[in-house]
Design brief:
Layout lengths: L4 H4 L2 H33 L4 H15 L3 H11 L9 H27 L2 H9 L4 H31 L11 H12 L2 H34 L1
Helix pairs in contact: 2-3, 2-5, 2-8, 2-9, 3-5, 4-5, 5-7, 6-7, 7-9, 8-9
Organism: Neobacillus pocheonensis
Family: Belongs to the binding-protein-dependent transport system permease family.
Main location: membrane
């Protein structure tokens, strides 16, 4: 028999852990968005060495499991004298992983902007940084929002991997309570419910942002 009343007294701890999950996800998303933009600009750069570095980075990150990347950051860096907290290690691993995928999203958005706009801006004497900032990137962000939203939701779910490096997020706390109370179905179902609520909220917010951007475009 399932006994969900057992979960009730642990709910405050699970809510607190869910807040840690949201914090971890949001910071990682910001890291991914910023670093992903840098990688995307390197990827499309006319400077070949920068383009090659970006391509190599994307190839490495997309071709290896995120769990391996997380373990390399958390367990590997201390071997060379760099010790980071579990939370920071998770942010770096999640953010750098997402950056590879976000870079390709940005690149697709940049390439979707008609090349004539770049040529027209150059003919008016605008420099490359100003063209990207005022003309190309605003349009890129507008068309990239749906894909970036999907990536953000994926990162929220992938944040559960941080439990393996002792971050007290939702999955780790759920595992601990499930094991000590021998109520695996109950705690894991409640944890799934938390994730479902959080991803639904993320999706709703992103949908509103997408609607706002589509209205401003008109």
């Amino acid at each position: 028999m399932l006994n969900f009343s057992l979960v009730g007294k642990f709910l405050p701890y699970m809510v607190k852990a869910a807040v840690v999950t949201i914090q971890l996800s949001l910071v990682s998303i910001i890291v991914g968005l910023v670093f992903g933009l840098v990688i995307a600009l390197m990827r499309i750069s006319k400077i070949k060495i920068l383009s090659y570095i970006a391509k190599f980075y994307i190839w490495i990150i997309r071709g290896t499991p995120m769990l391996v990347q997380l373990f390399l950051v958390y367990f590997g860096l201390p071997q060379i004298g760099i010790e980071l907290s579990p939370f920071i290690s998770s942010v770096i691993a999640l953010g750098m992983n997402a950056a590879a995928y976000i870079a390709e999203i940005y690149r697709g958005g940049i390439l979707s902007v008609p090349s004539g706009q770049m040529e027209a801006a150059e003919s008016l004497g605008m420099r490359y940084p100003a063209i990207m900032k005022k003309i190309i990137l605003p349009q890129t962000l507008r068309v990239s929002v749906p894909s970036l939203g999907n990536q953000a939701v994926s990162m929220l779910k992938d944040s559960s991997l941080a439990s393996l490096v002792t971050v007290s997020e939702l999955m780790m706390v759920s595992q601990r309570f499930a094991a000590t109370n021998y109520a695996f179905i109950e705690f894991y179902l409640v944890a799934a419910g938390f994730y479902l609520v959080m991803t639904t909220i993320f999706t709703f917010i992103l949908h509103k942002i997408e609607q706002r951007l589509s209205i401003s475009e008109r």
